[in-house]
């Protein structure tokens, strides 16, 4: 019986093809120790794995080097098996030792294969670095929820940003858990997510962390890319166990021993990337493997919409879209990786994030919630040190990336019917779907039957083929995703808006587009369309005519616009007339809606510091970029009249909120009174004429005297506090006084400032005015946000914005003469 040191020498000679018959006899003697089917030894630097049933001897990772040696050893084994006598068996290596041997053997390979990752827009692979993908743990994956369409629409429309689709229907209780922490469950996971959401990177991080011993060091990690497994696994019938024999260079029994003890972490990437007959066999083998080895932890990734059957004994989790901290961390990592100088990388990341989080870049920010699209955004900024002057160009590149380049870069071939359509045809189909929904009041969510009908209508196919197309679209590039059972939407509102704008670039369709000018959710479409339009001046002229037509037939509104024009003409300032018309429109319209909302507790509230916040309707400004408080009050606009008018309007609106005292707490009541006094004091500072100063002061003193009397009459002599039992009646008294006082203030404003008129608009007229104002804002943004508009043309349009038709006609006559 050869000793370990002697065996080392024998094995060295065999590896180098220098062995003798005596060496082979020594191996026969070794095999002659028993009839066990497996013998595992560690001899020096060699791991010896002898499989008698197969007649093979593996030394380390190598089978015998020559056919002659293989046959000689095989014959020796066969002879030994048939003639062996019972003797003391060789000690088998324990499963713990076996696991550590394999981990040691494959350590460098795992690091080499999975320790780097591609970054879109970068020509070389980069170190994996830190992981920026969390797994969003939900009771159900979004596509499996059974939410009502009305509930999902409400969740979207009540979203504070009013744009983000990523949180639609998730509810406030949805939990975000680190992707590494979720492994502590020790359960099988089906990790689903949109294309480019970071699923592969997540598995790379898991396998390298396990390889480094930072998690599950008692297990052998293996990451199998299923698109490669189609070829590599074919010779073993797609059996995971037999494939692991080759990877780990172990015998069948050794692999089963490891798996039976649950000593492996098996990661399978890209279930959606294996299709057809091979894909079906692979899916069945994965399910069989999970049943056969329940102690092994399996993690499978798949695009959100690509599973036709449920995997039992798997917890379904979803890769969450990036939140703001993750966006910031990813961007910093991206630039520090791309830039060789860390200081330069940090500076570029800071500049990128500053621009990304500006208000006007909210649509871009909406896209940058998945690694692939955030990488694209970073790459664009890296080249130009700014975003494209035309945001539509970024959206175009993002669509091209998802429709074509992403799968191509990963060498994935889809075998669906959808593949036969060109990229241009796919874009045209998606644009058609985007428009069909966007033209509706509920412009985001499709019911499945609805979207299948649109697809069939556009392509001229049957509903069965249409359903196949829908499945292919959702599986291949994730531009349409399932929000709930049988309910779909575009993955990003930004992409839907871009596709709608692209559809209306056709000259024959622009009259239809301009008819949507009064609808607020179409604003981004108009901005994108103005970027892409080849006949920009024609488009803007059509928009201008549509805006005027909105109120052209309502005489009362025309009278209001005439007052607006006259009021602006009476004010001396350096600002454009269109800016002043926007300002006085906002303040006047606030007075129109304030009485209607007097019963609404949301009209007034307190901020965190106890200060008063009044919900003025005038939230938009065409040109004035500073707040009225900071700009007008501090004479930043160079016109005391603007400041005076604004403060008086604000005071009057505050006084109108006293109409219903039931909404007031004691604290809010005091804040309203202080707000009134503060605005009157600022109005006094702005007033120039002595008689106007006197009248404002008189109104202020009347208010102060009444409030002081109120406090005096209702204060408890012992405690100094207002008597609770008299508080409600006292509030009613002061409410009555304020209403009378506000009418006096209004009369003064009308007589001396020509503001504060009670126009008595109907509800339909208020709605019309609101839409008219939104339309003017959209037109102004199209003008100001496009460098292709000449200064002359911009002036021409601005001169007639928010003017009554009579004034527009008068100006046109002057120009013609």
Protein architecture, described:
The protein is of the alpha+beta class and about 800 residues long. The protein has five domains: about 5-90, no CATH class; about 100-155 and about 170-320, Rossmann fold (3-Layer(aba) Sandwich), CATH 3.40.50; about 325-370 and about 370-390, no CATH class; about 505-570 and about 770-815; about 575-755, no CATH class. The chain contains 32 helices and 18 strands. A hairpin with a 2-residue loop joins strand 15 (about 480-485) and strand 16 (about 485-490). Helix 4 packs across helix 6 (about 200-210), helix 11 crosses helix 14 (about 370-385) and helix 21 (about 525-530) packs parallel to helix 30. The model is unreliable at about 1-5, about 35-45, about 50-55, about 60-65, about 75-90, about 165-175 and about 615-635 (pLDDT under 50).
């Amino acid at each position: 019986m050869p000793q370990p040191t002697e065996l080392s020498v024998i094995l060295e000679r065999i590896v180098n093809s220098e062995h003798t018959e005596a060496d082979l006899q020594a191996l026969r003697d070794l095999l002659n120790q028993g009839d066990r089917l497996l013998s595992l030894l560690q001899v020096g630097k060699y791991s010896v794995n002898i499989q008698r049933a197969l007649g093979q001897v593996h030394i380390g990772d190598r089978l015998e080097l020559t056919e002659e040696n293989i046959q000689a050893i095989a014959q020796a084994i066969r002879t030994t098996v048939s003639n062996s006598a019972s003797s003391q068996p060789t000690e088998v290596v324990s499963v713990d030792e076996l696991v550590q041997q394999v981990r040691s053997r494959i350590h460098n390979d795992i690091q080499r294969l999975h320790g780097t990752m591609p970054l879109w827009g970068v020509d070389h692979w980069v170190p994996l670095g830190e992981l920026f993908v969390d797994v969003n743990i939900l009771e159900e994956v979004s596509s499996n929820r059974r939410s009502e369409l009305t509930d999902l629409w409400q969740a979207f429309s009540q979203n504070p940003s009013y744009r983000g689709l990523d949180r639609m229907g998730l509810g406030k209780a949805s939990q975000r858990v680190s992707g590494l922490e979720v492994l502590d469950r020790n359960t099988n996971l089906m990790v689903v997510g949109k294309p480019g959401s970071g699923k592969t990177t997540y598995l790379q991080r898991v396998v390298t962390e396990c390889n480094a011993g930072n998690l599950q060091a008692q297990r052998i990690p293996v990451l199998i890319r299923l698109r490669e497994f189609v070829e590599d696994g074919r010779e073993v019938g797609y059996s995971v166990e037999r494939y692991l024999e080759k990877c780990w260079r172990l015998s069948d029994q050794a692999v089963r021993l490891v798996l039976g003890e649950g000593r492996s972490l098996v990661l399978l990437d890209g279930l959606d990337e294996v299709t057809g007959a091979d894909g079906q066999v692979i899916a069945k083998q994965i399910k069989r493997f999970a049943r056969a080895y329940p102690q092994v932890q399996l993690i499978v990734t798949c695009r959100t919409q690509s599973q036709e059957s449920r995997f039992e004994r798997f917890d379904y989790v979803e890769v969450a879209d990036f939140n703001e901290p993750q966006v910031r961390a990813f961007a910093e990592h991206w630039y520090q990786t791309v830039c060789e100088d860390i200081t330069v990388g940090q500076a570029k990341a800071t500049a990128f994030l500053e621009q990304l989080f500006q208000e006007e870049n909210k649509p871009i920010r909406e896209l940058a919630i998945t690694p692939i699209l955030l990488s694209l955004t970073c790459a664009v900024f890296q080249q130009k040190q700014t975003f494209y002057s035309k945001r539509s160009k970024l959206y175009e590149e993002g669509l091209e990336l998802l429709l074509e380049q992403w799968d191509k870069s990963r060498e994935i071939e889809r075998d669906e019917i959808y593949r036969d359509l060109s990229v241009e045809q796919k874009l045209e189909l998606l644009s058609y779907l985007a428009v069909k929904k966007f033209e509706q009041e509920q412009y985001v969510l499709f019911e499945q039957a609805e979207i299948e009908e649109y697809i069939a209508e556009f392509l001229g196919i049957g509903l069965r083929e249409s359903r196949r197309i829908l499945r292919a679209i959702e599986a291949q590039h994730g531009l349409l995703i399932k929000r709930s059972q049988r309910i779909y939407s575009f993955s990003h509102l930004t992409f839907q808006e871009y596709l709608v704008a692209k559809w209306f670039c056709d000259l024959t369709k622009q009259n239809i587009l301009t008819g949507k000018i009064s609808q607020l959710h179409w604003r981004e479409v108009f901005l994108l369309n103005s970027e892409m339009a080849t006949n920009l001046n024609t488009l803007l002229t059509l928009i201008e005519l549509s805006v005027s037509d909105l109120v052209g037939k309502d005489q009362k509104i025309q009278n209001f616009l005439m007052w607006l024009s006259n009021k602006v003409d009476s004010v001396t300032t350096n600002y454009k007339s269109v800016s002043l018309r926007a300002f006085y429109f906002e303040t006047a319209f606030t007075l129109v809606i304030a009485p209607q909302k007097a019963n609404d507790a949301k009209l007034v509230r307190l901020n965190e510091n106890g200060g008063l916040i009044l919900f003025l309707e005038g939230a938009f400004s065409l040109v004035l970029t500073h707040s009225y408080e900071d700009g007008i009050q501090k004479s930043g606009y160079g016109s005391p009249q603007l400041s005076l008018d604004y403060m008086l309007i604000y005071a009057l609106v505050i006084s109108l909120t006293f109409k219903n005292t039931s909404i007031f707490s004691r604290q809010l009541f005091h804040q309203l009174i202080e707000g009134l006094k503060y605005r009157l004091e600022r109005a006094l500072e702005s007033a120039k004429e002595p008689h106007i100063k006197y009248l404002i002061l008189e109104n202020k003193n009347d208010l102060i005297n009444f409030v002081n009397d109120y406090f005096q009459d209702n204060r408890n002599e012992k405690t100094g506090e207002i008597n609770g039992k008299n508080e409600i009646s006292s509030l009613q008294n002061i409410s009555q006084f304020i209403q009378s006082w506000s009418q006096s203030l209004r009369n003064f404003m009308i007589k001396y400032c020509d503001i504060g008129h009670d126009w008595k608009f109907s509800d339909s007229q208020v709605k019309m005015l609101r839409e008219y104002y939104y339309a003017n804002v959209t037109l102004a943004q199209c003008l100001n946000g496009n460098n292709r508009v000449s200064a002359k043309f911009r002036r021409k349009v601005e001169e007639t914005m928010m003017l009554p038709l009579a004034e527009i006609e008068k100006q046109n006559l002057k120009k013609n003469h």
